[in-house]
Amino acid sequence: MQSINASQPRTTATALTFSGFRTLFFAVTISGGLIFWLAPHPPMSDLAQHAGQVALLHDLLLDQSPWTHLLRINLFTPYVLAYGLSTALSFLTSVETALKLVLTLAFYGFVASYVMLRKRLVADERLDWLCIPGFFGFAYEYGFFSYLVATPIAMLFLRAALDYAEGPSLRRGITVLLVDIAVFFSHGLLFLFVSAIGGAFLLARYRNDWRKMARVGWPYAPPLALCVAYTFLHRSVDLAPMYPFRVIWSFQSSWMMELLVRLGCATVYPWAIIPDNWTVPVTLLMFAAPFFMGSRWCRNGMAYMPLAVLGILWFSVPIFAMNTAYLFHRFALFIFPFYALNFRSATDGDAMREGFDRRALLTQLAVAAVCIAFLGMQGVRALRFAKESADFEAIAAEVAPGQRVLNIVFSKDSPAAENPVVYENFALWYQADRRGLVDFNAAWFPPQVVRYRLDRLPAVGPAQVAPKPLSETFDWHRHEAWLYRYFFVRHTSPIPDRFFANQDCRVVLVRTVGNWSVYEKQSCHRQ
Fold first, then answer.
1. Under 8 Å CB-to-CB from 504, ≥6 apart: which residues?
2. Using CB atoms within 10 A as the burial measure, which of 125, 187, 350, 517 is most buried?
3. By CB neighbour count within 10 A (0-12 exposed, 13-18 middle, 19+ buried), where does 40 fall?
4. 0.90 exceeded by pTM
5. 297 has which bridge partners?
6. How crowded is residue 437: how many other Cβ atoms within 10 Å of its Cβ?
7. What is the DSSP string of 358-417?
8. Please, which residues bridge with residue 55 across strands?
9. How far is Cα 359 from Cα 408, in angstroms, rounded to an integer?
């Protein structure tokens, strides 16, 4: 950072202050990666489903899975990176440890790749703090494992795409092509997102020369063709509706109200799934920080493109489509980082008011304090969740390994983690840890690396768990409950009388610990 005053004492003091903040930023980033290790099972809703996928793939590759007759391996998927890394590590350690290690590396990789992009755009390094919170916001709490793991590759693609747009060459074009394909096999939605930003770089650079833009756009053609091929080959199965609805565009019936709601979402989702009293003021602080620090708008128009594309998608992408929920929500991870790319540091030549040093320093302290407090809060929640979720470990220890289980959730909220959905898939940790098979199972979904065979799909599918939960619609015969030996039930009050009543099997309570109960099917007249 340049000094803001001509005097040498002030220059030295500024340099020391900056060095201290960089050391603190490095320490906080390292500490952030430890959050994943504070609970045996992190408070991330979908993470249990991903852990179950890795366990299934591990056993299928070894030809040791008792579920081979039900499942198949699907390698033409946008989720190869996350599952490939985790499965490889699972041969050296437990599935749980493998996922935590991959998440830790993904967080460090995201911060490092953001810093690389920021340096390339000569943006204000004092704003690097803004890249930290989003990784532990909406996508973290929902447990979008593959999405989080893909973010460093996506950021590296943006760096390569920027280099190519400003100086096209065969080598750079091949780099863009290969990294874009890597992003495709990391996460399909991120692939579309960053490819659009790459196209925006070309548009910004060659907006007055459309012929050249068409000539230099060749690296984007093969990945686009790959995307089209994937859609075509999976059109009859993967893209067939799995829910009673195809597309959900908005929260509100009025476009104006929808605009306001999505603006509000931008103040919440970088931090959490649900709003809290502090989310709006700290978001305003993050947005105001560059101005209080004396940062200036970047002169490089390329810096505007990531935020511009993000803004368009934030207000135009539906809530649900292609059997995928929370489409625009997960882009909240990029709101603060892409915003920060639009600012450069103040220099000696900039006009400064008296007292600017102190204001900039206090703003940096405030932004750093927010990030530290936020990570600390997530750490405390993880520690509390470790104690709360121990009830599940107790009931899972009561059942035999390698069994089919039906997961029935009456209450998916965790007061300890302050996460309203964290227990929705938590029973899948039995699948990951004890090599069972739990429904509802993500093996239904198109991008999964392990999928149910089409002729062996279980009765409990996506439409049976949404929009109404299975606990409200459960029917012994319709859901073929006789297939399952155990039923894991999470509840905060007694379950309804005769919930498992049927004329085929006797279902008995094995044990209740806290808010978890496990029931076992016994003495069946039909199988």
1. 476, 482, 524, 525, 526
2. 187
3. middle
4. yes
5. 343
6. 25
7. HHHHHHHHHHHHHHHHHHHHHHHHHHHHHHHTHHHHHHHTTS-SS-EEEEEES---BTTT
8. none
9. 54
Burial class (CB in 10 A: 0-12, 13-18, 19+), 271: buried
For residue 158, the Cα-to-chain-centroid distance in whole angstroms is: 19
Q: At CA 400, angle to CA 53 and CA 36, rounded to 5?
A: 40
Kindly state the DSSP code that residue 496 receives in the 8-state scheme. Answer: P
Q: Is the dihedral of CA 512, 520, 397, 40 positive or negative?
A: negative
Query: Do 277 and 380 contact (CB within 8 A), yes or no?
Result: no
> Which residue shows structure tokens 């199988």?
527
As a whole number of angstroms, the distance between CA 389 and CA 464 comes to 25
Pick from 503, 507, 508, 509: which is nearest to 526 by CA? 503
Strand partners, 517: 489, 512
Q: Give per-10-residue mean pLDDT for the chain (527 aa).
A: 40 65 95 97 98 98 96 92 97 97 98 97 95 97 97 98 96 97 96 97 91 93 92 72 85 85 96 94 96 89 95 94 91 98 74 63 95 98 97 94 97 96 97 96 91 93 93 95 96 93 93 96 76
Strands 516-522 and 506-513 come out as antiparallel
Say if CB 20 and CB 372 are below 8 A apart: no
Give Cβ neighbours of residue 100 (< 8 Å, ≥ 6 apart). Answer: 36, 37, 42
Burial of 458 (0-12, 13-18, 19+ CB in 10 A): buried
User: Helix/strand/coil (H, E, C) string of 1-27?
Assistant: CCCCCCCHHHHHHHHHHHHHHHHHHHH
The DSSP string of 390-405 is: HHHHHHHTTS-SS-EE
Q: How many whole angstroms separate alpha carbon 192 and alpha carbon 316? A: 14
Q: Write the DSSP symbol of residue 452.
A: E
Long-range contacts of 424-427 (CB under 8 A, 24+ apart): 424/45, 425/45, 425/46, 425/47, 425/48, 425/49, 425/143, 426/41, 426/48, 426/389, 426/392, 426/490, 427/48, 427/392, 427/488, 427/490
User: Is residue 70 within 8 Å of 56, Cβ to Cβ?
Assistant: no
Query: Do the beta carbons of residue 449 and residue 74 sit within 8 Å?
Result: yes
Residues 214 and 206 sit within 8 Å (Cβ to Cβ): no
